Amino acid sequence: MMVFKAPKQRLRHVPPVYLDGVPLKVVEKLNIWVTLSRANSHEDIERERRALAVRGNMLARRFARCTVDVKSTLFKAFCQSFYTGGLRMTYTRRAYNALRVQYNHAFRML
Question: 6 pLDDT exceeds 60?
Fold first, then answer.
């Protein structure tokens, strides 16, 4: 479970939250693309770049003999989903370029 707070505010007592009788652990970072700290923004975009590489390689390997239309549809479904793209305002141009290069590479592989 993640608790959000206003900047410069101390976190007061958070009552325990249970799921199926098991208390949930409070964390500062979830294992997804978005984290709370701007310092971790490079980690987020790098994680997305690596995930794009994995998805692109998997599609190229498994669907090598498919038609171009099928490959195009699969690429759009699996490699164009950047759910948190609007939150990436603090990333550097270098990080964006690395993601763009990986995207183009995955597209060319198919």
Answer: yes
